[in-house]
Structure formats: C-alpha cells, structure tokens
Amino acid sequence: MPTEIWLAPLHGITSRTFRNTLSRHFGGIGFFMAPFLPAQTIGKLNKRVWQDIFPELNTALPLMPQLMGNQPEQFVDTMRMLNEQFGYEHFNINIGCPSSPVVRHTRGCGLMPHPDRVEAIVREITTKTTYKLSLKMRLGLHTADEGRELLWRLNSYPLNFLVIHPRLGDDLYSGTPDWDTFEEFYYLTQHPIVYSGDIFTVADYQRLSQRFPNMAGWMLGRGLLRNPFLAEEVQGLPTGDKTARFQAFHRDLVESLLPIRGESGTLANLKELWHYFANFTGMTEEELRNLLRINDLEEFTLFCSRKKEF
Ligand SMILES: Cc1cc2nc3c(=O)[nH]c(=O)nc-3n(C[C@H](O)[C@H](O)[C@H](O)COP(=O)(O)O)c2cc1C
User: Is 309 buried (19+), middle (13-18) or exposed (0-12) by CB count in 10 A?
Assistant: First the structure.
C-alpha cells in the first residue's frame, strides 16, 4: 500500500509556486498542507493572502488550508468564507508554530498552555460548522503536560486527525525530537496521527514507521527540501538521473518565480531554499556562504548550476 505522504507547510518557503513546481518534477507526495493564513473575523479578513490557496492555481494535488488565530469566531468566519468562495471543506489549525511574536500573541504554539481556549475553538467549529477539522501541534509549549491535557480533552471532539511534531515549542527546532513522549501521545489519543519531524533519510522513515506502524500519514518538510527525491525514495520509486532532474526543477522554479516575485523577490526566495538544497548538492559551507553573497540572479543561478553531480 502506498504511504500517505504530505508536504509539510513551511511558511515563506512552500508557497503555491514552489508546490506547483515541485509537483511537476517530483513524485511520491500525495497531499499538500498550505502554510498558515490568518484566521480573522469577517470585517478584518485580508483576502490578498488567499492567493496562495486559489483552487484554480492549486490543481496539482489535494491542498489543505491551515489557519492561525486565537478566537473561535475568527476561525468560523474565515472557514465559512473559504468554503463559500473556494469550496474548501477541511481545515487545519496551527497550534504548533513556536516563533516568539506568534507565541506572544497566544497564537500557534502559544495556545498549547491554554487548553480551555483550544477547546473553545474546536467546540465552536465542530458545533457551528460541518467542516472537517484537524490540528497541527507540538508536544507542548513549555512542557509535555500541556500536550497530554490537550490530547485528553480533544478525544471528545470529532477531529479528522492530529499532526504532531515531537518537540516542545521552547525547543524551536534544536536537539532531537522526543520520540518517547510522542509514543505516549500516539497511544493516548483516539484520533489518527500524522507524523511531522526530522525525517531526513529513508532510514529515518523506516525506523519511525516500524516503531509507529499505525500512522495515518507522514509529513516531509526540511528533509524534502534537503533532498527533493526523498518522497520518491520513501515510496520506492525510481529516481533516474538526479542531477538532470534537479537542474530542470531549479530552472523551472526560477522561471515560475520571476513573473510573480520579480528579480529581487526570486533571489530572496532562492537564497532561503539553498540553505536546504546546499545539503543535497554537497555544497561546502564556504561555497554556500559565497553563493548567498551573490546579489545578481543570473550570477546566482550560474553558480548553482556549476554543481554537476549529486
Ligand atoms: C521555516 C519554517 C516554516 C514553517 N512554517 C509552518 C507553517 O506555516 N505551519 C505549520 O504548521 N508548520 C510550519 N513549520 C513546521 C513544519 O511544518 C514541520 O512541522 C517542522 O519543520 C518539522 O518537520 P521537518 O523536520 O520534516 O521539517 C515550519 C517550519 C519551518 C522550518
């Protein structure tokens, strides 16, 4: 049976253009989760950011929108609008983002120490709408007791699944994930779980899928950026000439970004991505530093294409 693989949402990186270009060149992924959009009450909605999830521009794979907010009515209003305008019926709520401005405003992972507030949001959505709902969370913000309490409470609500990244918000992305606590959560919740975190190689995936055989799906984020063939490799698909395929993908990405982001926006986006691609192409730290110093798009892409064998 093919494994259900999701592209993890990475705000500022896995935007529509990236997702579409990725799906033109690489297989193995079944679903996209879009990076978070703000949940707002009707009068305050910023519809400009919805461009990322326009259905007519997101036809490659099923796409699930993700929302971030902290008030029940913000979620209900935004979901209703996205359903009426675009037909979306399944939404994910972000309670895992650990960035300090987000946490300070009691959004993202900042909600995890407040189970009453999360429960109020979930209750409002599940009683006032018929949309399918999932949450993306961590083990907690400061301690895993926050996650335990939340999981226990969420068992009473009809959620489609939970995505769990096995770190605390306080840990950001440092250290190794806490798989023992994740295992406890895996058995504590009655909801299906989609796993997200630190799958960088096929061996990582195999180790985790043996330990957690009943996972509803697997999310690949930084691992897939470091090696765009990772989903194919996990699925056991042939990868062929990796160098030629990566270079074709990269050319297509530049050409797709240019009309939307302009030269400087494209360059900024590529610089972000090359922090990850550098790993796959075997760039040394010094080469990467030199690459990131380049401020001309043509020179930048020329430098990238000099790496011939991956
Ligand atoms: C730069 C960056 C942006 C992210 N943006 C989001 C986001 O918008 N929504 C979300 O739920 N998670 C976000 N995440 C978390 C990832 O989806 C994922 O859970 C995390 O990176 C761990 O998985 P990985 O090791 O496979 O990357 C982000 C992570 C990074 C590094």
Answer: exposed
